[in-house]
């Protein structure tokens, strides 16, 4: 029952977002209709342009038709790029953005979790002070500033990595060159996440370490490593797991900035180009896909949350 309610809520969110997205798309097309028709257009010309732009019929009927087509990844043809559908343009850019986001998450989790554990085990130690100070510094540092600094040091000065991701090969074609080109952008995006994950997990770990059952395990002579991994880390991972799952929106925004900074031909550059060109079909398609991704991850996080803490699942019955 709990999952059914959440599915209904997420479907409602999806419908609301796509409805307003289509409304904005419709407004943009109406402006384009006025610009194309001009002041001296005949009714026949206006009707022809309406048909070309898909503006004939009522708003609700057009929305339902667009939504039905979107469920099969048919978002209409690009208004600007003739001969290409919106999905074809997105499909070309999407893998690069997904790779950037996944690598950034892996880097962030790989750095944040060990540092949080080390800091929680020894509060006030040198590693706790240094990691906390570094987290505050990263939170105050915008991703584009961090990206410029990393590009200058490791790209321009040391020459270890390219500063512009040009002609990126697929992971299956040349994984070494692919990762070499994507490392700086991924680190740029991931380091901002480290600060959030580190502070959140450290705080929860310290709180859990003070629980009675943990002290009882210590009194029984269990090793510190076993206590941490079997009795502390799992209940302390609830907020951390939620943050990882629900950080998609912020991660997408950061990925767009990083893509422009490093010249990655991903979704970020695609959206900016299509907004400038007023290619409303592509922009609406991107918003719809991001909405689906967000509500799906939200649902998966709810499921994982109830697995990590069964009290949530039992309490909802």
Automatic annotation (TrEMBL):
Nucleotidyltransferase keyword on record: no
Cellular component, GO annotation: plasma membrane
Record keywords: Cell membrane, Membrane, Transmembrane, Transmembrane helix, Transport
Similarity remark: Belongs to the binding-protein-dependent transport system permease family.
The ABC transmembrane type-1 domain, residue ranges: 94-301
GO biological process: transmembrane transport
Entries under Gene3D superfamilies matching the protein: MetI-like
Domain of life of the source: Bacteria
Name of this protein: Putative oligopeptide ABC transporter permease protein
Membrane topology of the entry: Multi-pass membrane protein
Species, as recorded: Ilumatobacter coccineus (strain NBRC 103263 / KCTC 29153 / YM16-304)
Organism taxonomic ancestry: Bacteria, Bacillati, Actinomycetota, Acidimicrobiia, Acidimicrobiales
Membrane-spanning segments: 7-25, 100-118, 138-162, 182-201, 238-262, 282-308
Keyword Cytoplasm: no
Major subcellular location class: membrane
Subcellular location: Cell membrane
Pfam family, one: BPD_transp_1_N
């Amino acid at each position: 029952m709990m999952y059914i309610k959440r599915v209904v809520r997420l479907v409602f969110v999806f419908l609301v977002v796509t409805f307003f997205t289509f409304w904005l798309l419709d407004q943009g097309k109406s402006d384009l209709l006025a610009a194309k028709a001009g002041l001296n257009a005949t009714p026949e010309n206006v009707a022809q342009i309406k048909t070309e732009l898909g503006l004939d019929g009522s708003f609700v009927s057009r929305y339902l038709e667009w939504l039905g087509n979107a469920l099969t990844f048919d978002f209409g043809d690009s208004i600007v790029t003739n001969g290409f559908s919106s999905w074809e343009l997105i499909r070309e850019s999407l893998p690069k953005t997904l790779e950037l986001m996944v690598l950034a998450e892996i880097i962030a989790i790989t750095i944040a979790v060990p540092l949080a554990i080390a800091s929680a085990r020894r509060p006030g130690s040198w590693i706790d002070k240094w990691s906390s100070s570094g987290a505050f510094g990263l939170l105050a540092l915008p991703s584009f500033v961090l990206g410029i600094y990393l590009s200058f040091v490791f790209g321009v000065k040391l020459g270890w990595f390219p500063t512009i991701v040009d002609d990126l090969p697929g992971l299956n074609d040349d994984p070494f060159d692919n990762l070499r080109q994507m490392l700086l952008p991924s680190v740029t995006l991931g380091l901002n996440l480290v600060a959030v994950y580190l502070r959140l997990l450290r705080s929860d770990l310290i709180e859990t370490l003070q629980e009675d059952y943990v002290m009882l395990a210590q009194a029984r002579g269990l090793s510190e490593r076993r206590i941490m991994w079997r009795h502390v880390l799992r209940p302390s991972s609830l907020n951390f797991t939620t943050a990882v799952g629900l950080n998609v929106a912020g991660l997408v925004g950061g990925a767009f900035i990083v893509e422009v900074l490093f010249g990655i031909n991903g979704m970020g550059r695609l959206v900016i180009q299509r907004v400038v060109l007023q290619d409303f079909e592509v922009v609406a398609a991107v918003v719809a896909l991001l909405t689906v991704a967000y509500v799906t991850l939200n649902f998966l996080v709810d499921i994982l949350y109830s697995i990590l803490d069964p009290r949530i699942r039992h309490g909802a019955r």
